[in-house]
Amino acid sequence: MTHKEAQTRIQKLREEIAHERYLYHVLDTPGISDAALDSLKHELYTLEQTYPDLITPDSPTQRVGGEALNIFQKVEHAARMLSMEDVFSTEEFSAWYTRVCERVDTNQLDLYCMPKLDGLAVSLEYKNGQLVLGATRGDGRVGEDVTHNIRTIESIPLSLRTPIDAQKKAHPILKNLPQTLIVRGEVFMPVKAFNQLNKEREQTGEALFANPRNVAAGSIRQLDATIAASRPLRFVAWDLITDMGQTTHEEEMALLNALGFATTPYSERVADRTGVERMFATLQKGRARMPFWIDGMVIRVNNNDVYSELGVIGKTPRGLVAWKFPAEEATTRLLDVVWSVGRTGAVTPVAELEPVFVAGTTVQHASLHNMDEIERLGLKIGDTVVIKKAGDIIPKVVAVLTKMRTGKEMQIKAPTQINGSAVYKKPGEVALYCADPHAFDRRLQAIAYAVGKQVLDIDGLGEKTIAQLLERGIIANFADLYGMSKDELLTLEGFAEVSAENAIQAIYVAKTVPLHRFITALGIKHVGGETARRLAQTFLTFDRLQQATREELLAVEDVGETVADAIVEFFARQDNQTLVNTFREHGGVIVPAKRRERGALTDKTFVLTGTLETMTRTQAKESIEQLGGKVTGSVSKATTAVVAGENPGSKLAKAQQLGVAVLNEKQFSAMLASLST
């Protein structure tokens, strides 16, 4: 990037951040998520560090917060409410750690770590032990007087514990309370309360809250205190501003507890860098099980003298940093749109993005769903966009920052053909379709889907291998795999004697296929795994399904007219009949389904977590279902038992929390054996 390009990008970033900050802090109507705003700020900060001559006093990186709303009385903070430097990776944290060590001439820091709650920061002032002021951060120097709402939060003491109470129960420093005492912390709403509040609003037809931070901020910044009083808000203290002789932040937390404040849970003193990294990993792994939302970890130099000596740079203390969890949203630029053909012929637009780190991975592609979605977003090539990725969910573009446009952006046009095949749109549908049922990409995706773990479960046949087999004319569909020889595999790139033998063996094992899996492998439009299972349980044999009338299909649970028509149309085509015949000619066996009767596990629900050694999770699921049981993806009080293998996830902790029975693999296998005899 040239200096001029950087200057243009920086200006655009400043304008967009200023606009989003105004929406968020002044009007209480955020336009984008906190994670997306963090991403813009981080990009601006990085560019300004690269081009320091472009830093100006009015840059968003040089200020804290926003202007106070005029409807509240403004109050000046006795001590500035500073911001924190954000880091987003182990490398960035290590760089901060090294800088601080060098500044205080040490090789190891004594630190105090706290979960970073996602709420509203407030400052509380007490006079002679009585609460007299509650204020928001505002711009760091001047905030808003929200005392009337703060007083409604039961976890905030209206009067401090008296010196005699403190002398009996807490720190000796509390024998003499100062006339003025200032405490800072976070107002937030617990997970359970937030979910219940939204449930109630849904029942009354009110708009749902987007996140708990919005609820906390919106409740505290209301003129009518009854609104805040009606909501189960909580407060935790994380800083004692008044000097009472405390020497460490750890001691401050004990003092705050003694004064009657709840402090941030799961906080602790950490002796070295490795300990910080370990604690961060623990918090990140366990965040979903916490009773409140957190978006990272705050790391502070524990010794107060060292912390003061480090001082402040700009608007952030050098001895304090917020290590944020990998954001589920980030901003980046759309470089291009490519169109891919799926197994059903649907033509889908895929965004090619400037690489960006989000939710723990580097993302370069995102789903755009269809042309209607592109038009809804008003998306153009070259736009700055917000992308979202949570866990294993495919990244998607959720917003366009139109104010970032330079005028060089280009319109996105729907294709009229793809790989030589015509593209059309069916009446009443938003998707585009490839007209040729034998198009290469369609066949490739159809076969890759069929051999997948949840369908035929054939190892060793990835998309690259399937593409080679199609290109060389060795196969035309998944049924042809069963007639393929090892010698044919050996002609492909990436195959040697052992790998070819393993692939042929995997294909041989997959010749015997349960009916519901074979139906799924066919790739009938609108028929996924669950619908295939219901069809199998209804018709029991493949031949009976092939002969089913539209009326008989409509009688199956969850099969409507669209699905029934797709099934009838599929079996009416000769090429699909040929595929089934080819499978059988190569020795394929379609195992009939058993009529579901009440079994030993009927009305019982199980959840699987972790890796099982003696069976796959799919096999475990089928074993439970054969005995009449049900397997679900989440743990609740209604769950009969959780089956936990190696390296179980959060489902195990949820089961223990709810008192749900937990079976290890040995116990689970023994249960199946006893019930199957």
TrEMBL record:
<dbReference type="InterPro" id="IPR004150">
    <property type="entry name" value="NAD_DNA_ligase_OB"/>
</dbReference>
<keyword id="KW-0235">DNA replication</keyword>
<dbReference type="GO" id="GO:0046872">
    <property type="term" value="F:metal ion binding"/>
</dbReference>
<dbReference type="GO" id="GO:0003911">
    <property type="term" value="F:DNA ligase (NAD+) activity"/>
</dbReference>
<keyword id="KW-0479">Metal-binding</keyword>
<keyword id="KW-0234">DNA repair</keyword>
<dbReference type="InterPro" id="IPR001357">
    <property type="entry name" value="BRCT_dom"/>
</dbReference>
<protein>
    <recommendedName>
        <fullName>DNA ligase</fullName>
        <ecNumber>6.5.1.2</ecNumber>
    </recommendedName>
</protein>
<dbReference type="Pfam" id="PF03120">
    <property type="entry name" value="OB_DNA_ligase"/>
</dbReference>
<dbReference type="GO" id="GO:0006281">
    <property type="term" value="P:DNA repair"/>
</dbReference>
<dbReference type="Pfam" id="PF01653">
    <property type="entry name" value="DNA_ligase_aden"/>
</dbReference>
<keyword id="KW-0227">DNA damage</keyword>
<feature type="binding site">
    <location>
        <position position="137"/>
    </location>
    <ligand>
        <name>NAD(+)</name>
    </ligand>
</feature>
<dbReference type="GO" id="GO:0006260">
    <property type="term" value="P:DNA replication"/>
</dbReference>
<dbReference type="InterPro" id="IPR018239">
    <property type="entry name" value="DNA_ligase_AS"/>
</dbReference>
<dbReference type="InterPro" id="IPR001679">
    <property type="entry name" value="DNA_ligase"/>
</dbReference>
<dbReference type="InterPro" id="IPR012340">
    <property type="entry name" value="NA-bd_OB-fold"/>
</dbReference>
<keyword id="KW-0460">Magnesium</keyword>
<comment type="function">
    <text>DNA ligase that catalyzes the formation of phosphodiester linkages between 5'-phosphoryl and 3'-hydroxyl groups in double-stranded DNA using NAD as a coenzyme and as the energy source for the reaction. It is essential for DNA replication and repair of damaged DNA.</text>
</comment>
<dbReference type="Pfam" id="PF00533">
    <property type="entry name" value="BRCT"/>
</dbReference>
<dbReference type="InterPro" id="IPR013839">
    <property type="entry name" value="DNAligase_adenylation"/>
</dbReference>
<dbReference type="GO" id="GO:0005829">
    <property type="term" value="C:cytosol"/>
</dbReference>
<dbReference type="InterPro" id="IPR013840">
    <property type="entry name" value="DNAligase_N"/>
</dbReference>
<dbReference type="InterPro" id="IPR033136">
    <property type="entry name" value="DNA_ligase_CS"/>
</dbReference>
<dbReference type="Pfam" id="PF12826">
    <property type="entry name" value="HHH_2"/>
</dbReference>
<feature type="binding site">
    <location>
        <position position="186"/>
    </location>
    <ligand>
        <name>NAD(+)</name>
    </ligand>
</feature>
<feature type="active site" description="N6-AMP-lysine intermediate">
    <location>
        <position position="116"/>
    </location>
</feature>
<keyword id="KW-0862">Zinc</keyword>
<dbReference type="InterPro" id="IPR010994">
    <property type="entry name" value="RuvA_2-like"/>
</dbReference>
<feature type="binding site">
    <location>
        <position position="324"/>
    </location>
    <ligand>
        <name>NAD(+)</name>
    </ligand>
</feature>
<comment type="similarity">
    <text>Belongs to the NAD-dependent DNA ligase family. LigA subfamily.</text>
</comment>
<feature type="binding site">
    <location>
        <begin position="83"/>
        <end position="84"/>
    </location>
    <ligand>
        <name>NAD(+)</name>
    </ligand>
</feature>
<dbReference type="InterPro" id="IPR041663">
    <property type="entry name" value="DisA/LigA_HHH"/>
</dbReference>
<keyword id="KW-0436">Ligase</keyword>
<dbReference type="InterPro" id="IPR036420">
    <property type="entry name" value="BRCT_dom_sf"/>
</dbReference>
<keyword id="KW-0520">NAD</keyword>
<keyword id="KW-0464">Manganese</keyword>
<feature type="domain" description="BRCT">
    <location>
        <begin position="596"/>
        <end position="677"/>
    </location>
</feature>
<dbReference type="Pfam" id="PF14520">
    <property type="entry name" value="HHH_5"/>
</dbReference>
<dbReference type="InterPro" id="IPR003583">
    <property type="entry name" value="Hlx-hairpin-Hlx_DNA-bd_motif"/>
</dbReference>
<dbReference type="GO" id="GO:0003677">
    <property type="term" value="F:DNA binding"/>
</dbReference>
